[in-house]
Amino acid sequence: MSSGTVKSRRTLVLFGFALVILAFAVALLFGAIIFQEGNPFPVVQALARIELGGADVARISGPAVKYIQKVGPEEPLSEHLSGCGWAFRERLGAAIFYDRDGSTLTAEARMLTRRYVVYELDREPCSHE
Length: 129
What we know:
Layout: H1 3-34, H2 40-51, E1 57-60, E2 65-70, H3 75-82, E3 87-92, E4 95-100, E5 103-111, E6 116-121
Antiparallel strand pairs: 1-2, 2-6, 3-4, 4-5, 5-6
């Protein structure tokens, strides 16, 4: 083998090793944040709809009914739910209550990061019972 081939192969191996070390460091430092909602890919997709698609609130796909929005008042969630017939009733701490036809929908708010909040609803909001 020529010395150029050996050097390029060595450079490629070192670059790959550096990427593995970097990925390990990111997972170690940010793993708790990345995986706190389970599979991170649905969260990333919802964040892309907010940041790139201009949505105010986005559904996180999965078996649980979760929405995400930027930190602030829950008006974007309330506006989305009003399209399904739910009316804001009150907020008590992290719990937000909505009413429709004598039924109550509960949304539990929790911080995902300092920039985003996740709402977990107790049922599918747009299905009519």
